Amino acid sequence: MSTTLPTPVPVSLPETEEFWAATAEGKLLLRRCDDCGIPIWYPRPFCPVCGSFRTSWSEASGRGTVYTFTVVHRSGIPGYREALPYVVAYVELAEGPRVMTNIVDCEPDDVVVGMPVRVVFHDTGQGSALYRFQPDPTATDDGS
Fold it and tell me: Using CA atoms, how far apart are residues 121 and 133, in angstroms rounded to an integer?
């Protein structure tokens, strides 16, 4: 398996503070529009579909599938350069949104589109964690 990825501290803005605090507790939160019901990604205080400011946090299942990915073989970013190769992917969450992330705990050559994954959290040591995804061997054919 490839080297462990670095865990830089994410930039936390007032509208994402609760999201990043929840990651430190092992929770993946999504905003949901209270008017039209769609899940909102990236966390923001308004709905990009209907424009409503009536949104609330809900905990995501943490399960999804690989929508697309690339294997990074070159990087000039310190920490990431030492972790080559690694996978950058879009994961389609069970709730619908697609999130950019890394696929970890497997060989990059084993990642495939449609692969079931589940969230894991890598602690930054600063009151937040980075959400990443690993293969989910417990997933069934119906995605549960």
Answer: 8
